[in-house]
Specification:
The structure holds 2 protein chains of 2 kinds.
Chain A: E1 2-6, H1 10-14, H2 16-25, E2 32-34, H3 45-49, H4 53-70, E3 73-76, H5 79-94, H6 96-106, E4 119-121, H7 122-130, H8 132-138, E5 147-151, H9 154-157, H10 160-163, H11 173-180, E6 184-186, H12 197-202, H13 205-221, E7 226-229, H14 232-249, E8 257-259, H15 260-267, H16 285-295
Parallel strand pairs in A: 1-2, 1-3, 3-4, 5-6, 5-7, 7-8
Helix pairs in contact in A: 2-15, 4-5, 4-6, 7-8, 8-11, 13-14
Chain B: H1 15-20, H2 27-30, H3 50-55, H4 74-78, H5 85-99, H6 104-116, H7 124-132, H8 144-151, H9 153-160
The chains are: A alpha/beta, B mainly alpha.
Amino acid sequence: MRYSFFRGCFIPVRLPHIEMLAMKLLPEFGVELAPVEGFTCCPEPIGFTVNHPLTGLAVSARNLSLAEEQGHDIITLCNGCTYTLKLANETLKSDLELRNKVNKLLSETGHQYRGTVKVRHFAEVLVDTVGLDKVNKKAEMPLEGLKVASHTGCHLLSPPEVMGFDDPQVPVKLDLMMEAIGATALDYSYKTQCCGWTLRNYGDRNASYTLLGDKLRAMRSAGADSVNVVCPQCLNQFDTGQMMAGRALKLDFKLPALFYLQYLALAMGYSLDEVWYRRHKVKDPGFEEKLGRILA
Amino acid sequence: MVINTRYLARTFHGLEEAAEICLKCGVCCVVKGYGCPAQYDGQFTPRHTYVYDCLGHDDPTSNPNIWQCVSCHKCEEMCPYEVSPVAFIEAMKIWALEEGHAPDSIIGEIEQVVNTGYAFPLTANTERQRQQLGLEPIRANENLKAIAKETGLLELLGRHRK
């Protein structure tokens, strides 16, 4: 399985440790990441594509055409990139008039969109292509006893007819991914509510804190030791956002958030230091101690 | 719901009509665990929800609240009458950008993408961390300016630059 590796923006710029882990871990499951020269921002859906769709589509088409020239499907590490590129791919495949218009815009760049590749989120690849039985076999240090609240994130779920990953109202795949590496997956209220990252960055900051507070309290009540996400913006919200919301709301607990690849690495024998947990803003001694006991 | 978009000036593929069948049941916004995240803004209540505010505004494109929408699609998934508030709000954003009502955070991000190929600023700190992790340096990509020129986006940004 060879994929054109779409790193996106947020991960390389703000969370490079996730990029490093993807490059180390995914090949162990037979997922080869082919570097692509010239990929740009997907572009970011809410700040860019929604507001000027023609430019957004053309930029996405340019990215998709680079993968087409390489001859591989795209693999992403981000819900936003997946949302933008899947929607653009779907639109350009079905609307020939628009495709011609976009290709005309691209003509000076030397690329043309042909509609020959698929876009896959790494979670989709792990669950649907690699298979969780293989993930389970690699988890030599299963995270037994660790209680994890998973948050799938809006833009990997909706609209479901395009995203095709999981049920937007009853998502289960992230729970299965956590169970495959030995952890206990928790159900909690507010499970499908947004993380609030977009609201914090483009809308009302305080509304985003209140929302995040509701989610975190629900996770905590369900007994969570930590949070699991598969999107860099969600990670930033549950980490930096939690630090800010914690101050604003005077939360009396901390719930560390890790990207799934970090949990996977831990289950494959990496230490907390090696997954760059120390780089995170929200750290909790209780979580560290429990994980230490599990991995001992 | 009575909506006040300027029908004669422009239509959005039947979106106004779809918005008009909104019965103001409130399901899209009042179900806290699942519904609209923007409803968390303290100015909205079950009687005046975020979605009513956007659909029923006197001049929807100049309503600053449209920019709170995160395009999570929860409103359209919850709606029992197949209204798609998100599609309506997104259409208003397009129009608002053209008319110069987009907030600085949006303009700044669009310019950042067009000029560098990245939506988030590249910093020296990032480069240090990438080096420590053994990752290749990030290079800005200026190929998107040509596309933005062709689509009229550059001209639009120039027109509204303060």
